[in-house]
Design brief:
It comes from Eleusine coracana subsp. coracana. This protein has 238 residues and is an alpha+beta fold. It is 27% helix and 45% strand. A hairpin with a 3-residue loop joins strand 8 (184-200) and strand 9.
Length: 238
């Protein structure tokens, strides 16, 4: 009887506790861990994307800086146009012995001036109507005009090839018959002024003012056509 009673009142044994390795004790912790790993991966992706964008932006800025530097040293660097007096020619020299009351010799001649302009820039150079004054013995003996025009990039064009009549009343007092017969050197000076503009792609524009002074030596004699013997010019660009 006692054994049966002891067996009847024997305490109940607890069931086996589930292994945490197979059945997590707390599902919320597992979900939190998964969410943490997802957020970490998302953060890494965003960081890589931000670094990639910053790298692209830095590369673009560097490339733009290099392009701007190259353009500043080439296309946008405006060089001074070169103005040249190629030659001056006297044609149709006509001498006439005048009267003592006026002047002993009267001289008529036609002067031809050949002027060219070189544009070393990568953009065209447009210039307005220009003027060239010729002087002899301090007197203006002729004025030549050239129309407006344009010089292409890296080109040289003949800007002026004009013919003008020398003002005889200003030349004759300084000429005598002996000089015309046996030959004589005459020093003529000229002054040319040209205003224009270099237009680079419509973005950068620069106005230029070219002034050129020339000293020209002409050997005149025997009433023939005479070309310039020597020409020395000095140009200033502002």
């Amino acid at each position: 009887m006692e054994s049966a009673a002891d067996a009847k009142y024997e305490p109940t044994r607890p069931l086996a506790v589930p292994s945490p390795a197979v059945h997590p004790a707390n599902s919320n912790e597992a979900e939190a861990a998964t969410a943490g790993r997802w957020r970490s991966a998302q953060y890494l992706r965003r960081r890589r994307c931000a670094l990639w964008c910053c790298g692209c932006l830095a590369t673009t800025v560097v490339l733009l800086g290099i392009v701007a530097l190259v353009l500043a040293l080439t296309v946008f660097r405006v060089k001074d146009p070169v103005l040249t007096m190629n030659r001056v020619t006297l044609e149709g020299i006509d001498g006439d012995l005048g009267t003592v009351s006026t002047h002993p010799v009267s001289v008529n001649a036609t002067l031809s001036a050949d002027i060219s302009i070189e544009n070393p820039n990568a953009a065209s150079f447009a210039f307005s109507r220009s003027e060239t004054d010729f002087y002899y013995a301090g007197e203006t003996v002729g004025v030549a005009y050239a129309p407006a025009g344009e010089v292409g990039a890296g080109r040289t064009v003949r800007m002026m090839n004009v013919t003008l009549d020398v003002l005889a009343d200003r030349v004759s007092p300084n000429v005598n018959a002996t000089d015309l017969i046996f030959g004589q050197d005459y020093n003529v000076t000229s002054y040319t002024e040209i205003t224009g503009r270099v237009n680079v792609l419509g973005i950068y524009k620069r106005d230029l003012d070219i002034k050129m002074n020339c000293s020209i030596t002409l050997e005149v004699g025997a009433f023939t056509t005479v070309q310039s013997k020597a020409t020395d010019c000095v140009a200033n660009v502002s």
